[in-house]
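thought: fold this chain, then report.
action: predict
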Amino acid sequence: MPPNKIKLVILDRDGVINQDSKDFIRSPAQWQPIPGSLEAIAQLNQAGYRVVVATNQSGVGRGYYSEADLAAIHQKMHKALQSFNGVIDRVFYCPHHPEDHCECRKPRIGLFKQIAQTYPVDLTTVPMIGDSLRDLQATQAAGCRPILVLTGQGQQTLQDNPQLVNQVPIFEDLKAAVCVLLFDG
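observation:
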């Protein structure tokens, strides 16, 4: 399939899809969706978009939870989405500790390179919705279209970086971002 034949949206996980925690989401019981986020993903799917997640999960590298725990958290997310007829095609994640200086940890673009190798798209056409400065930095470095949501770390990100008001679209939450994305095409 030639580039741009599929519509793709990249989402951060913690703070965009589910509630974030400074202590990390360590178990399926701690994973709680942000109101409206699962419905928003289902709306994207119904409009013909494939949805993928690009997420830093340094809790694995820090020893807070295992890759099996992370898989169980993602299984809960996938199952919760099913009740809305929503699907996340794939979760791309960086399990490394920040001090590992790996290429896949946002704000670096390794996860985006993996996405580009997996999906036949021109990343310049792909929106990425995140709640942190590192999400936006990685998105811009990869050539994607950055969108900031004010859930999770979003309010603090905007407060610490007021220039973002003139640089990226900003929305209250994923549901609001998706409504505009679908309206604007």
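thought: worth noting. The first strand starts at residue 7 and ends at 11.
final: tokens above.
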